[in-house]
Amino acid sequence: MEVPYHDRERTKYQMVAYTFEKIASMNKVGAVESSAINEARSWFLNNTKKLGNITKSNLAADKDRLVNNMNKFSIGRMYMFYYDAKYKDELPYWDRFPLVFPIEMYPDGFLGINLHYISPLARAKLMDALYSTINNKNNDDTTKLNINYRILKSASQFSYFRPCVKRYLYSHVKSRYFYITPAEWDTTILLPTEQFVGADKSKVYRNSSKQF
After folding, report:
1. Measured between alpha carbons, how far is 144 from 160 in angstroms, rounded to an integer?
2. What is the pLDDT of residues 21-46, one digit of tens each?
């Protein structure tokens, strides 16, 4: 379905529509119309300039957006970070720079939804579903998703999450965690920040789509 993207006035949580409509003019491999991707790139340059070319040293420079540790209060919030997979020699592919909503905490790490494992169009559909779990409409640092693995697994509306669930070990996180505010979620999912090792993103998206 091809639907032109129109930026328009909205309340922050007209959930089933905005995220999807914003990038609904993608084709099957997740290509985004120039108006949407240009908006995303502009946001990225204006709001995360200290990330530069997304290097670990630049990531460490933005002290206002960095978190040292994950904990139970991190659940339902969005983060980026650098990762070196423990079983990288055995995995068919993995993402060096995850975009994650943590959903469960463990003594040695956490379980998270890494949105990079699905196409931008699938991300938009998943985000529309995830917004239904939001704890408030403040659209500030108090806002987060009320989610866990049991909730996600129990409802068909969240089916896009399945290929995204990944376990992360603290000992293999190679940077601090870059916090993404709720106001930036819709834009961040458009950004081509994935860094897959072992396969290109088209292959990852194709494989992931078999799990929906």
Report:
1. 19
2. 443 344 333 444 455 555 555 555 55
